[in-house]
């Protein structure tokens, strides 16, 4: 009897789909570094389109969990959080709310990528609307406008960072050094000065057993205690237009920061007090999307979207350039299993080896037209890409 039951249970376990083994529920993935643990994926010379959808105008990336894919877009005076079936593209639910287009020097539309945390979805709009939604149904659990409540300045291009979940708190890039909100009910736990925030997502690090979040403003990156928002250190990093948009990257006790607009990058050594500068250079200027760090080398886009850009491989230790590939131009990227997944601004999907020895292209295909700034996402054998007008493609990567 026991043997029969064990055999039946074993057969059930073997038959269970492994579809959730490589989910991507938060911006830059659960490790916050833009690198997926997924293996055995492959993209052909002509990637197969499994499905396509329309999400509206915007630059949100994607999050994927429990068979659901979320992104955002703008149309007809409203922003929409879309929940699609990750395998078919069918609409599971959508949540709309009134929003300005915000087309200042560009098309406008949504910027923020939602965050999935278990059975809840958290979303911050460009204008400070904060939502807690049921992941399965899209039902509003609670909502509020944190900008109006805190009177924080709205950055020129609106709030752009995704909510960071830390225990029972949401850490938001609102105000000069972040905002802490109770995730269960939306109560504000702590806030910072009203000065304009930067555009990066709060980045979690732990130092001496203390949980911190590194938050950008228009002129600095600041580490604050997650529990109460107390500033621990601040590194001045003044940039043109106040655009500090890319996320930091932590390696041991070193923190890498990069910004576009000819600002450049720096490597900081974290200490018990203020960080110490290891090096600073203009060698790698990430305007919007962050680099990825693999085996001591950074891979990222150097330059602004309106300039001559290239993909670069830079040694983290000293900032020396290992190689540069100009055929990529402007774009965004993530990585998985020693390979880079790059979406160029012109809609080319490029897969290349992540090797400091040189640029080695494995495949290149034109998959989209129009402006493409949103970061591609690999999850469970599929690659998701989109353009600014809102066309979403799901490509087979098995």
Description of the molecule:
With 398 residues, the protein is mainly beta. It has a single domain (24-396), classed as Methylamine Dehydrogenase, Chain H (7 Propeller), CATH 2.130.10.10. It has 2 helices and 33 strands. It has helices at 2-15, 146-150, and strands at 35-36, 49-54, 63-65, 68-75, 78-85, 91-98, 115-117, 120-124, 129-134, 140-145, 164-166, 169-172, 179-182, 188-191, 203-207, 210-216, 220-225, 231-236, 249-251, 254-259, 264-269, 276-281, 292-294, 297-302, 310-315, 321-325, 331-336, 339-344, 348-353, 361-366, 377-379, 382-386, 391-396. The strands form 8 sheets. It has a 5-stranded mixed β-sheet with strand order 1-27-28-29-30, with no helix packed on it. A 4-stranded antiparallel β-sheet has the order 2-33-32-31, with no helix packed on it. A hairpin with a 4-residue loop joins strand 8 and strand 9 (129-134). The longest helix has 14 residues, at 2-15. The two termini are 39 Å apart.
Which short descriptors sum up this protein?
398 residues; 2 helices; four-stranded antiparallel beta sheet; Methylamine Dehydrogenase, Chain H; mainly beta
Summarize the structure.
This protein has 398 residues and is mainly beta. The protein has 2 helices and 33 strands.
Report helical residue fraction.
Answer: under 10%
Supply Rg. 21 Å
How many runs of DSSP E, i.e. beta strands? 33
CATH topology: Methylamine Dehydrogenase, Chain H
Major sheet details = 5 strands, mixed
Bulk shape: globular
| Structural domain tally | 1
Oligomer: single chain
User: What structural class do the secondary elements suggest?
Assistant: mainly beta
Distance between the termini: 39 Å
Flag low-confidence runs: 1-19
Helix run count: 2
